[in-house]
Design brief:
- The chain contains twelve helices and ten strands.
- A four-stranded antiparallel beta sheet has the order 5-6-7-8, with no helix packed on it. Strands 1-2 form a two-stranded antiparallel sheet.
- α2 packs antiparallel against α12 (about 325-345), α3 (about 60-70) runs parallel beside α5 and α11 (about 295-310) runs parallel beside α12.
- The chain is an alpha+beta fold and about 350 residues long.
- It has a domain at about 30-155: Alpha/alpha barrel (Glycosyltransferase), CATH 1.50.10.10.
C-alpha cells in the first residue's frame, strides 16, 4: 500500500518522512553480518576470543563479551562453545571466578591465578542472558555461583559503602584501595539485583554512582582509568593518571543502564567536543595533555551512543564493526549497538 502524502497536511508528511529516515540512521542493534564478521575475526573454532591488540591473548573480559553478544544474537552454538572454553581454561582457580588471562602456548600452571572482576561480572551477566534467552536453568545456577564468589572475595568497604576490587589480589595497599570504575558494569548490576535478592547489588550501584560524582579530575573533570581510595578519591600513584582505554566504558555502561541524566555526561561530551578534526582516545588528568592520534571506531561508537541517548541526536550513526580489525574497538562498537537497542526497547 502506498502512502498518500497529498492527503496529509504538509507538515505531517514532512514529519513522517523525517521519522522514517531517522529511524534507520541510528543503526540500532547488531546485524547478523556484523556478528559473523566479529566471530570470524576474533573467535576461534574452539571458542577462544582473541585480543588482537594485546598479543593475541585471551582473557575473561573477552570471553564474557563474546558470550553476551552470542546470547543477544540467539547463537546458542557459539555461546556454548565460548562457555566451554572459558570453563576449561579460565575457571580453574578452585572457586567460581576466572583467571584473567590465557596466553597462546603457555601452560595453565604458568599463568597468573588472579582474576579480573569485570570479566567475572561479564561472564555472569552473559550466563543470565543465556538463561533468559534459552530457559536453561543450569546457566542461571552457574551465574549465581559466580555472584556468590564475587560477594565473598571481591567486595570491600570504604567509608561505609561497598566497593569492587579489580581483582582478588594486588589492589589493597598502605591502608588504601585501588579501584577501576569501569568495572562497575551498571546494566549487569541491575540484572544481578533481579536474580539475587541480596541488596549488595543495589548498594554497589549507589557506591559507583557516588564515586563517579566525586572522581572528577583535570580540565574536563573526567574519571580516571584507575582510582585510589584513601581519605579521599585520588588519582592512582600506581598507574598513569589518564582517562582512556578503561574509562571509555563508563559512559557506555551508564547509558546502557538508563542513567541518562545530562549532568552525568557533560564532562565526556565537553572533552570530545574540544577538538573538531579528531577525537582523542585519552587525556592526562594531571597536565591535560591529549592523545595526538584519532581514537579508534569503538570509542566513536560510545560517543555516538551518548549523542543519541542523552542528546537525542537521532541522526548519529554508530560505526560498523567492519571498520575495525582491533578486538577491543570492535567489541566497544557492538556493545554500543546492543546498548542502543536495549535502551530503545
Amino acid at each position: 500500500m502506498r502512502l498518500r502524502l497529498d492527503l496529509f497536511p504538509k507538515w505531517a508528511g514532512l514529519f513522517l518522512i523525517m521519522g522514517l529516515a531517522l529511524a534507520g540512521c541510528t543503526s540500532a542493534g547488531i546485524s547478523n553480518s556484523q556478528w559473523q564478521q566479529y566471530k570470524s575475526r576474533f573467535i576461534t573454532s574452539e571458542g577462544r576470543v582473541i585480543d588482537t591488540g594485546n598479543g593475541n591473548i585471551s582473557h575473561s573480559e573477552g570471553q564474557g563479551i563474546g558470550m553476551l553478544l552470542a546470547a543477544s544474537m540467539d547463537d546458542r552454538p557459539a555461546f556454548d562453545n565460548l562457555w566451554q572454553w572459558t570453563r576449561s581454561n579460565l575457571q580453574v582457580r578452585g572457586d567460581h571466578l576466572f583467571r584473567w588471562r590465557r596466553r597462546p602456548g603457555v601452560a595453565t600452571q604458568r599463568e597468573d591465578p588472579n582474576n579480573a572482576t569485570d570479566g567475572d561480572i561479564l561472564i555472569a551477566w552473559a550466563l543470565l542472558e543465556g538463561f533468559r534467552r534459552w530457559s536453561s536453568p543450569s546457566l542461571k545456577q552457574e551465574a549465581l555461583l559466580i555472584l556468590g564468589d564475587i560477594k565473598r572475595r571481591l567486595i570491600r568497604r570504604w567509608r561505609q559503602q561497598p566497593v569492587l576490587l579489580p581483582g582478588e589480589r594486588g589492589f589493597e595497599h598502605d591502608g588504601g584501595l585501588t579501584i577501576n570504575l569501569s568495572y562497575w558494569i551498571f546494566p549487569a548490576l541491575k540484572r544481578f539485583a533481579r536474580e539475587d535478592p541480596d541488596p549488595i547489588w543495589r548498594q554497589l550501584t549507589e557506591s559507583g554512582l557516588k564515586l563517579l560524582a566525586q572522581a572528577r579530575f583535570g580540565r574536563w573533570q573526567l574519571p580516571p582509568d584507575w582510582l585510589e581510595l584513601k581519605d579521599q578519591p585520588a588519582l592512582s600513584s600506581r598507574h598513569d593518571p589518564v582517562f582512556g582505554y578503561n574509562a571509555i566504558r563508563i559512559p557506555l555502561y551508564l547509558a546502557w543502564a538508563g542513567y541518562l541524566e545530562p549532568g552525568r555526561f557533560g564532562p565526556y561530551l565537553a572533552f570530545w567536543k574540544h577538538t573538531d578534526d579528531f577525537m582523542p582516545a585519552w587525556t592526562n588528568l594531571d597536565n591535560n595533555c591529549i592523545d595526538s592520534y584519532d581514537a579508534p571506531p569503538g570509542f566513536k561508537a560510545v560517543h555516538a551512543l551518548i549523542r543519541v541517548q542523552v542528546k537525542k541526536q537521532w541522526w548519529r550513526r554508530l560505526p560498523s564493526v567492519s571498520d575495525d580489525n582491533n578486538y577491543y574497538s570492535a567489541s566497544l562498537t557492538l556493545l554500543s549497538k546492543l546498548a542502543l537497542l536495549q535502551g530503545q526497547t
